[in-house]
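We treat protein structure as text, and this decision shapes the records that our systems exchange. We quote a single record here, exactly as it is kept in our systems:
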Amino acid sequence: MSAEAKAANPFQKVYSDLKVGDKTYHFYSLPKLADARVDKLPYSIRILLESAVRNCDEFAVRSVDVENILNWAQTSKQQVEVPFKPARVLMQDFTGVPAVVDLASMRDAIKNLGGDPNVINPLVPADLVIDHSVQVDVARTPDALKLNLQMEMKRNSERFQFLKWGARAFKNFLIVPPGSGIVHQVNLEYLARTVFNHEGVLYPDSLVGTDSHTTMIDGLGVAGWGVGGIEAEAVMLGEPISMVLPEVIGYKLVGKLPANATATDLVLTITERLRKKGVVDKFVEFFGPGVDELSLADRATIANMAPEYGATMGFFPVDKRTVEYLVQTSRDAQTVAYIEQYLRAQNMFVESDKAANIVFTDVLELDLSTIVPCVAGPKRPHDRVTVSDLQKDFRTGLTAPVGFKGYGLKEEDAKREAKLTYKGKDYTLRHGDVVIAAITSCTNTSNPSVLIGAGLLARNAVAKGLTTKEYIKTSLAPGSGVVTKYLAASGLQPALDALGFSLVGYGCTTCIGNSGDIPAELEQCIVQNELVASAVLSGNRNFEGRVHPNTRANYLASPPLVVAYALAGTVDFDFETQPIGHDQNGKPVFLKEIWPSNTEIQEVISKSVLSSMFKEVYSNIQNGSDEWRALQVSESLLYPWDDKSTYIHHPPYFQGLTAEPGAAKDIKDAFCLLNLGDSITTDHISPAGDIAKNSPAAAFLKERGVQPADFNTYGARRGNDQIMARGTFANIRLINKLAGKPGPNTVHVPSGELLSVYDAAARYQSEGRDLIVLGGKDYGSGSSRDWAAKGPKLQGVKAIIAVSFERIHRSNLAGMGIIPLQFKAGEDAEKLGLTGKETFSIDLTSKPLQVGQTVTVHVSTGKSFEARLRLDTPVELTYFKHGGILPYVLRKLAAKSKRT
């Protein structure tokens, strides 16, 4: 901390010393504020308070902000805005590549404005873990890991070279190479500081990440949540986050999980209940005696799924379990010592006798002993179904109207069967048959209890002679190399291999649509017979069309249940009454006979999950594979753009940028590009999966000589704006009321032609027409994805008018200069009689825009309606006037560099 910053801080009086062992540290003491309100604040709010006190300069952070946080009990109900400066930024490669592309582009732009390119550097530590590029090309073989990594490197060498250039070109920027693990588990086990030590000054670790499941770190008592890549870049460049001071829901846990329940069952129950409560834009803070019963990995599992229950954070404050985990994961002894002593000195360390003082906005309670085995699906992660009810729920859904539970089949079609011949064996396929069974994703691969449980279940099944059908694509993609070590040490990996759950890679795979192909014969059988095939995965995202285009019933489940459903071969199954298979003697075997006990699981964990494993894995994590080390990159201040590259392209956002923003413009006679319903996810808006062979993006690649086998995924090509603009609204399951049928199409209203969304948008742009999009509830839910805002921007969309917005996506729209407008309560497009074939005009210039103001939308039919401007803070208004957050930051940095 500079002397100037310290001198400007009005809270310098609370600057204190802390002696730990033979070392002396410094910190800004909250107890020395001598304010009784501090001890009543939730622990999560105390982190915001400490940041405001430490960073107060009466400019970016003011004394009034500190007062507003201290007065949280009142201000949290009043939409009061406060700045927050996170300690660091975390990225994965899908969202990280476009962020680095933007930073590289900003260097060019600031040079063109007469500024110094050297000022474009992360000012806070930025870590990027390459974990989203591996695909399950090969499965069920011992060499799957090696072959998948080789294909990952071959497909993505351009992207990886670019990232390696960025790691050298930018200061304060760490790259974790591919094959190292899932970003959130690497964060939990290695990157997280818990308490930062910056030049001897201690302060709580905090972060924002470009992945919505950044919240997993909240299980370690580190405040973190997902933001769009656009906002993360601004934080990297020294901008505070402007946030509305959130309400905090206290969630009291009591009791203990029963023997047959897992942390996955618990989090699916919590997700369902918090969804019903409504916690969007809120913090959830867990407390109570039940928290003591949860391992750190259990807590991380619950924190991870905060996006699914809608909260900004699901926070577990630091306690003795946290410290034990830091020791287990081989953190340095001195570091662990100052973490605990600092947090105790700040009254941020949980002592059960002090919890009664805390005031929450509201309190919920859950008895852990009531948790039963469950799954979530078939199309959303918050639609919980108990395992005992799944067969009935699935069968009912087959003939129910098309929706989140229904498929709209006729009664006779619901009983359809089809013949499949695969590797010389004949099978009969029915609705609900499992074709993908994946132990994957950050949600559960952070947790030894469920992974050891899956291994023990597999061992018991193999001992009985049980097998899985060969056509089921089974896979194991753990979060870090530590998992491999403890599965090997426990002797359980061979049993998983025997059932097809061989190691396929370390990274996000099936959960993000990188499930790879299923056998061609199987795919043909499903498509020709219109079967509702199933995927069962331990991930946390099961939106329609995400896991695989041909699995329509996708269920989230614990790793042991993934193994169980793979053995059963179908989700149309009742484990209580139906045997999961037959043993060597032909005797029926029921699931309860091979399900491992909690006692057995804990015994294996105590013997097999060792601190030395974490030390060994993470001591070499930054080295990467031979292929990674062999990548050649240039060392230059400015990136040498190559227009022939189909992976990395110089984006248009900053080209031609002027030193001052232009005047705001009204939206006049805009056409509706899409008229969409509820729960439109970022997967619908900006798919991450395979590039369809008949899509505009595919046509673009073919024109440049790229063969279909090398198309890769949209996620892998996010560094090229030309492809991503063509991939916007390209989900095959998109339901656009203008088109009348599912698919990435819309009507060009003036001509009446049905076109791809991209082609229609391009035609509108050539005609000089503005565009808007109509949406329903929870517009932009799902993964945080900056391209879900960048893509519409490039397609010419000026405004999104929706019933409600997902938090991160709304922020991303504002950050790209797209106006989020919200229908009045009780209104939507249908109730207002809007078809999407009208034109829309919005006045943005006759009077100064204000936070949350009401604007009138005039429709060509002569009607008009009012909508609320969802630019929620004065800072967002400023960003909008500059055309987005990055042009604003760029202009500010350019002006500053000229002065210096």
